[in-house]
Amino acid sequence: MTRDAADPAVPIASIVVVDDDTAILELVSFLLTRRGYRVATATDARTAITLIARQRPELVLMDYMLPDLDGLSALCTIREQFPATYVIMFSGQGSEEIVVELMKAGAAEYLLKPFNNRTLLERVDGVLRLREIELANRALQTERERLLLEIETWNRELQGRVREKSEALQRAQTEIAQTEKLAALGYLSAGMAHEIRNPLNSIALFTQLLRQGIEDEEQQDYLDKTLKEVDRIDGIIRRLVDAAGRSRTIQPDVQVDQVIQSALAVFAPQIEARRITISLQCAATPPPVKADPAELEQIFTNLFLNALEEMPQGGRLAIEISSASGRIMVRVSDTGGGIREELLETVFEPFFTTKSRGTGIGLPVVRRIARLYHGDVTIEKTSTQGTTFRVTFPAFLA
Ligand SMILES: Nc1ncnc2c1ncn2[C@@H]1O[C@H](COP(=O)(O)OP(=O)(O)OP(=O)(O)O)[C@@H](O)[C@H]1O
Ligand SMILES: [Mg+2]
Questions:
Q1: Measured between alpha carbons, how far is 163 from 149 in angstroms, rounded to an integer?
Q2: Which ligand is nearest to the CA of 338?
Q3: Is the CB of 330 under 6 A from ligand 1?
Q4: Which residue has the least CA distance to atom 31 on ligand 1?
């Protein structure tokens, strides 16, 4: 095969020939130049390495016996410093060990002197072809690794997104389950309330009649306690029915501060009896909201009730109303015993209670109503010094 050096489509390989025998150097140079290669020569290893560093040839043909450096060291240096330069070694005396050693050190070929011209050219052509394939392969390998890395990154990102979505779905499902629990509760309680309230009324009535006819103080006390328990049952039923939700009456201009005042008024007797300090702060008149005032009041009634239940020996109930960027925020703080860290989310689940007489529907109802108005309720802070609940919702301007 004769190489066509004039064809611009065929890149001309550049070759450095290194031999201290100038006769060989000239012969090889002549053969390769005639073949179309660009040839440079050196008679010792150091000059050769400088030349290689400058020209970065595709191929080096180098004698194993050089005056300044042994062929193996020179080969190692070239392969290490210029990995894209391939090396064909030749030598006058060839032993199998030397060949093995040279191939291990990265020689592409080994030629025993004297070599015939055709063999030399065939080997040179062959090594250059091999070099091209190997380098292309190496580039492909690098590209493959880069792509694999990219795919891995995408994969990880995708997994992260799937995980996020699954968690969101899980949260949504939990919420639906809780809403369903409340809905079932509403359905049951509406029916039950009616069934229970009638006999309850009779019990209350007959107990009152009994009490009027009894002189014995101890027995009167028992009947008073019975009446109190009847009241408690009635209270629970009322709250259950409230939790189930009634038909809503939306008003266009509800004042949150007034709603809070009226929720507070319900607790006036307890507040006074336990000497609880009330602090109601309202930075400016909050914007009116479009809401069912009874529903909003329910939020605060439940929060105040919890706060007061936490402070049987007295304390401070602080309410802070603020509004900014179209949202109204109300903080309700008490100086009660606080909520344990691991219960921070659980307390919003229906029927979760730590109270012997609790039903566990106060906070779920607060959350349900707040979310109905596109708002929410969270625990801003809690410690053994007290708890702050934060209710936020958008001010639907009238
Ligand atoms: N201000 C608070 N301080 C400390 N713990 C609280 C406070 N508010 C609520 N909790 C805790 O959250 C639980 C759930 O409250 P939630 O109002 O839902 O139910 P409950 O008060 O137990 O019963 P219910 O309100 O139905 O009578 C309470 O049992 C209590 O452990
Ligand atoms: Mg409660």
A1: 21
A2: 1
A3: no
A4: 354
367 CA → ligand 2 middle, Å: 12
347 CB near ligand 1 (under 6 Å): yes
Ligand 1 contact via 355 beta carbon (within 6 Å): yes
CA of 357 to the centre of ligand 2 (A): 10
Q: How confident is the model at residue 187 (pLDDT cuts 50, 70, 90)?
A: low
For the full predicted model, state whether its pTM sits above 0.85: no
User: Can you list the domains of the chain with their CATH numbers?
Assistant: 14-115 (3.40.50.2300), 170-242 (1.10.287.130), 247-394 (3.30.565.10)
Q: Six-digit token pair at 8?
A: 């611009």
Confidence of residue 108 (pLDDT cuts 50, 70, 90): very high
Please check the confidence at residue 8 and state whether its pLDDT lies above 80.
Answer: no
DSSP state, residue 97: H
Report whether pLDDT(9) > 60. Answer: no
316-355 pLDDT tens trace: 999 999 998 889 999 999 999 999 999 998 999 888 999 9
In terms of DSSP H, where are the helices of the chain? 22-35, 45-55, 71-81, 96-104, 117-212, 217-244, 256-266, 268-273, 293-310, 362-372
Cα(363) to ligand 2 centroid in Å equals 6
Tokens 């032993």 found at: 95
Ligand approaching nearest to the C-alpha of 349: 1
CA 340 to centroid of ligand 2, rounded, Å: 16
